[in-house]
Each structure stands twice: as C-alpha cells, then as structure tokens.
Amino acid sequence: MLKRYSRQVILSNIGEEGQKKLLKSKAVIVGCGALGTVAANNLARAGVGHITIIDRDFVELSNLQRQMLFEESDVGEPKALAAENRLKSINSEIKVEGVVSDLNHTNVEEILEGADIVLDATDNVQTRMLVNDYCVQKEIPWIYTGAIGTSGMIMTIVPEGPCLRCLYPHIPKAGSLPTCDTMGVLNTATVIMGSMESTEAIKILLDSGVRSSEVNAQDNDDKDGEMVVYDAWNNSIDHIVVKRSENCKCCAEAEFEFLEAEDKEIITSLCGRNAVQITPARPKNLSLLDVASQLEKLGEVKASSFLVLFKTESYEISIFRDARAIIKGTNDGNVAKSLYARYIGT
Ligand SMILES: [Zn+2]
Fold first, then answer.
1. Which residue has the higher pLDDT, 284 or 130?
2. How far is the CA of 318 from the centre of ligand 1 (A)?
3. How far is CA 264 from the centre of its chain?
C-alpha cells in the first residue's frame, strides 16, 4: 500500500511511520487558486489521507496561467469540484472533498472541524482573520501564506506561538491592499510559496518540530514565530522573527470577533474584478432549475448543476445552490444588493 510513496518513505524525515501518519491526517485548504491548487496537488500526491478544499469561485481562462490543477476544459466549472475531480484521479486512495462555498462565520465550524492542519490559500484579510480566530480558539495549527507580484510570505501559526493578529493588530480595510487582479503575479512565485506551505504542512502533520535557524537564535524565545518573505525574481529570502503580543485581541484576550459576526448577509467587493459577492446570512438550498426558468423571461440564462449564469443589462450574475451570488459589472455593494433582491429575492 505504501509502494506509491516509496520515494518519500525512504527519506529519513518521513519513513514508514511518518507516511502512515500522513495517511491518517486531515488537511483543509481554504481557497483553490494559485496557492491552493499547488498545495492540494502536493498533499494529495504525498498521501495526506483526507483533504478538504473550499472555494467560492469558478475557473476562468485567466486562472490557467498559475492555477495548476485546471485545464481549458474546466473553464466555467466551480473550482472546488474541478479540483476534487483532478485530485481523485491523481490519488484515488485518499479522501478528497471539494466544497463550493465561501468560508464565513456561519460555516467555519462545519468546514474546519477535525482538521489537523489548515492551509490558507485565500486572497483576502477577512477570511484569514476568520481562520485565525477559529484555529486559535480550537488550538489547530494553520499556515498563513500570500503571494503577489514576484514575491510571497508565509508564517506557520501554532497554538503556543504568535497568531496573525499579533502580526497585524489593525485589520487593513477591504480593498485597500493590492491584489493579483490589480497588480499581477508570477506563476513561479505562487508555485514556490504553495510548495513552502505544503512542506510546512507536512512537517506539522509529522510533528517534526523543525524550526529555522533564525528562530533558534540565542536571544529568541521558544514561543517566537517566524515569517519568511521570498522574492522569486531577486532570489532573496528573509526570515523575520515574530513575537507574541501580550495584548493581542485574539490569542491573548480571546476575543474572537470574526467568529461572532452579526447574522446578516455578507457583501464582499471582489476588488480588481468589478464584481461583488453576496452571501445570505444563512445558506439556503436553491433549486437552480426553478431559478433558471424564472430568469429566462428576463435575460440570457445558462444553467449547470452547480450554478445559474444570468446576463441582463450590463451585469452578469452567477447564482450558486447555497443562494450565494457573484454580480459582475459593479463594485458598488448597494447596486449589487438591489440586483440580488430583484432577481434572486431576499
Ligand atoms: Zn495573537
């Protein structure tokens, strides 16, 4: 049974015991874009026994430059399902679960529960802070990773060490940071960052306790964390020691504000894409057939078993089974809200 993993079983870092451990582990990957596809591919091939991957979006042609699990025939499919199918064909001996949804405070418990490790592969601060709150509260290790332009950063967050909120006590406003859509990204940078993240995940699952020389330096505390910043173009790598903050809202004061968000719809501007996502306060189970036949009278409709794509005026509205919608053609939350109310209802 371990034959397919023979080349990593002979590594002294893994061995037969380590491989068995990986096969019994569960990893949840939040986001199935450039980083998520690389990490999922690595972990599936390495034999991590249970992989859940969650993503809210569908594959677009401009994703193929860096999202390594997808090919042209996947364009238009939900990323999480296209990834699930590809991963199952790569390794049929592990359990792979694709979840077409947006991770938020209403479903975080259900999706991250039971994870031995959580890998961040999202593109926004809000979701990262939500993952941080949940993982700190439940004492689950997780890995913060981001990439943009030609560089990326990574920090492994473990229960006894500093958390993401120690690093960023003030949350940047949504839309105030550059994104891959506005600034561009080099595919080798995302592949390298996704691979660093997979390596960290495997080390944690094996409980190997390996730390970098920077953190082991004399004047640093055992509990210190480390952020690694890598630039693929300059070939530079920097290690920055991160201290635990004594007045961190999350890990010191146990105020989990991202888990306790209000029970109302969530409006997210997908910046750089001229689109807004609306997630209802509680997921519903829509009949996409009914939705499609209603909308056919009002504009152009394309329906699949996962989503209804509706074009009207200058807008393109994708409606998912859980009643979430992505409205292309506006950056204005109020415009999106009124389109949602008009075509999908409240
Ligand atoms: Zn903290």
1. 130
2. 37
3. 22
Instruction: With beta carbons less than 8 A apart as the criterion, state whether 328 and 322 touch.
Output: no
Q: What is the pLDDT of residues 208-238, one digit of tens each?
A: 766 666 666 656 677 899 999 999 999 999 9
Which DSSP category does 24 fall into? T
251: in domain: no
How far apart are the CA of 322 and the centre of ligand 1, in A? 33
DSSP string, 51-89: EEEEES-B--GGGTTT-TT--GGGTTSBHHHHHHHHHHH
Q: How far is the CA of 249 from the centre of ligand 1 (A)?
A: 7
25 and 112 fall within a common domain: yes
Same structural domain, 66 and 184: yes
Report the pLDDT averaged over residues 126-148: 96
In a domain, 261, yes or no: no
Distance in angstroms (rounded) separating the CA atoms of residues 29 and 55: 9
Domain termination residue (choose one: 227, 242, 257): 242
Asked if residue 310 and residue 167 are part of one domain, the reply reads: no
180 falls in which pLDDT band (50, 70, 90)? low
Ligand 1 mean position to 101 CA, how many Å? 27
User: Which pTM was predicted?
Assistant: 0.84
| Backbone dihedral angles phi then psi of residue 225, each to the nearest 5 degrees | -110, 180
Residue 136 CA, ligand 1 centroid: distance in Å: 8
Cα(125) to centroid(ligand 1), Å: 15
Q: Please compute the mean of the pLDDT values over residues 139-149 and round it to a whole number.
A: 96
Do residues 69 and 218 share a domain?
yes
Distance CA 206, CA 209 (A): 8
